[in-house]
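Q: Could you fold this chain for me?
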Amino acid sequence: MFYDHQQIEKKWQKYWEDHQTYKTSDSTDKPKFYVLDMFPYPSGAGLHVGHPLGYIASDIYARYKRHQGFNVLHPVGYDSFGLPAEQYAIQTGQHPAITTEQNITRYEEQLRKIGFSFDWSREVRTSDASYYKWTQWIFIELFHSWYNKDTDKAEPIETLIRHFETKGTAGLNANQNEELDFTAEEWNAASSIDKEDILLNYRLAYRAETTVNWCPALGTVLANDEVKDGKSERGGFPVFQKKMMQWSMRISAYSERLLQGLKTLDWPQPLKDSQEYWIGKSQGAQVKFSVEGQSETVEVFTTRPDTIFGATFMVLAPENPLVETLTTEAQKAEIENYIEETSKKTERDRMSDVKNVSGAFTGSYAVNPFSNERMPVFISDYVLMGYGTGAVMAVPAHDERDHRFAKKFNLEIKKVVETDENVQEASFDSKDSVCVNSDFLNGLNYNDAKALIISAIEKRAIGHGTTNYRQRDAIFSRQRYWGEPVPVYYKDGMPYTLPVSALPLELPEVEKYLPTEDGDPPLGNAKTFAWDEISQKVVNTDLINGTTILPLELSTMPGWAGSSWYFLRYMDPNDDSVFVKKELADYWGQVDLYIGGSEHATGHLLYSRFWNMFLKDRGYISHNEPFQKLINQGMILGMSAFVYRIDGTNQYVSKNLAKEYQTQQIHVDVSLLKGTSDELDTEAFKAWRPDYADAEFILEDGKYITGREVEKMSKSKYNVVNPDDICEEYGADGLRLYEMFLGPLEQSKPWNTQGLSGVYGFLKKFWNLYFNGEVFEVSDDEPTKAEYKVLHTLIKKVVYDIENFSFNTSVSSFMIAVNELQKIKCNKRNILEPLAVIISPYAPHICEELWNLLGNKESIEFEKFPVLNEDYLVEDEIQYPVSVNGKMKFKISLSAQLTAKEVEDVVLKDEKMLQILEGTTPKKIIVVPHRIVNIVI
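A: Sure. Below is the predicted structure, expressed as structure tokens.
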């Protein structure tokens, strides 16, 4: 019977939509299972075949859990704010909302074609005002919260105010920007503006001067992961370090909890390692060094206070505020030039560039508090302002970077850790040796020396032992248009949040999407974007009077804001009264399975964990962590094609002749190849782009053969394969099976369209098991033991594979089972009905059709998954190979129920054995039950 995949797939996609098959109930009478894909950004290019890999895996698992009787939440939505739509708006004038809507329509069309079991009724978009109303609400909650280190959680700002009213800062243990000291009387006497200023020092969302990655061409601040080699990832524009007033999120308050929480998660170890490194916990000491002729002290954080006697110079971050104070007149020009050069590097570039050494001398000298020796003070880009105190005591004998710096600037290198190595030539870093040249620390091991020196530091009142984290607070402002407006207005220079009743603060219309002529962000172009405190509404900016009508914040939120809580909104997507009802958040709890790319390790995944912990602290949800199990799917790689242009000509030489010429290798669109071959359609190539119209070709055997190479699938490499084309030719079920069949989910693997024919052949075989010629024919006869064995072998394998995410081996098992059933001409209902259920998570359309043909009126989706019966896997007979003196002589079929002694007796009486023995008695007989018989004569 002809397998018409196009008709079948259209029919069932319409059925699922009409019947809302995958609409999730909030009824709590079933156990829940929450399966989620990482939030897609709807780009203009649409999906290529690499994108659905993770979605197919999560969809298989969601369908499997439904078959097991779980209430499955498997939603979809779009992370729809983003720079690409804004850049397109700047270039064309088209509003980003229009571009985004078009892109989403295209994405949804493609996703529906692949047959995903998403609950489309729960779709959310971060750029919808009904969604970002709650993103703004969370920001307001963060603004009105502080972190109490004593209770180790976020608390309402009112509790901090009460503390100030009764005790001032006495006994306060808070996460803060700087340590303040005032009495209750001083607080109570302070003006309201001064109080607001003080509270900004403690709020979890606060405004402060911060060093940022500023991209003038894009007119915005960029996150570290949006900058590559000093240029913006989008557009390749220069990026500079610049100090700006920015909103920040106090994620640093959660560093220890974020670190400890990793222990509870079933995540890939490399991903956990990335977060652990990013958080960067280290224990050591904070020490103050005096500076000659200055009242200022330089405070450093060091993980090796035991080496303080070997500190021979100091290095400050170029951004350290002390640089200006400590720089002498003679060194001013050199220092300013160096700071200018450093501003062109991002922090990430500075951290990764370990080989190049640079710096400038300030002209000042600090004093080592233990050796009393003078220490020249330098600045260098290898010291970061955000880590520790933005200053280091340099111990060149025992730190590689300090050593390179000392060699370059001819500074003293003093050994203080015992070693036979020459520390003048290379640094020696070890915690297994003992201290030397260190006065009262001499002879002590690392732990004892560290404890003693910290005690001495504390006794001298020049510092204390401490724990430090590399992770810094997250910058939360972007000077862009297409993002969530920050719900803040300014009065007397102080930020105040809008009342919740005024939310959402909607994005205003603007004439242009670029910064204003005054350098304000694009929202500065809006005509209706001021806050009327009296009428509590947004009004025309011309009315701003500084008393009752006030300016609104012109920055927008970063791309990660909306994606830091979307997993919660899916639980209650249409609620206008709360971001999620507590009882629904308690029922759905953590995401049980989260699938997405590893590139989000230190961005989205950290921010989501931070916001989740905050919302738990404030009592809105009950779970500590958002994502319990996480899988990073690998990439599907493209098979690029190349032509070889002879230098200085418009002649193109075929691959195997190219070595005879000087050529340039150029990517060519894979759609220009003939069929699935490597041969270029030369006429199509000439028509592809105007500059190739007069191309000439040097052929081999009358053909132009392209070069092929496996690379990342990308529009720029012209190696993208559109899933729509695959669905058209091989069906969505073919695409789903093939993507799983390619290899283990976590590994990267190359795409090869030719491979689809094998999977498509399997689907046709599977389809025809249910037909006799053109007639659907399934027998109600009882299956044989052999037929049951095939089925239950498959059940056992597939259950194990799905639960261990080994989807590729399941597809192989389907092929084996269908081949075996075809061989024994099985058409029994009791085999073919459960077979359709087993294969349906992978190939839902064909299985729905077969299920329907079998006479079932309801969807196959909620049919109970077949249960394994091990009895069918027990062998009735075992074919024993019989070996004599290690050489196999014959095989004998025996009952599987026989004991080893019974097997021995039967074998010795067998006619073939009697001929071999010729009356002699064996020296030894070894029977391995169900395996082998070995006889020694």
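A (continued): The radius of gyration is 35 Å.
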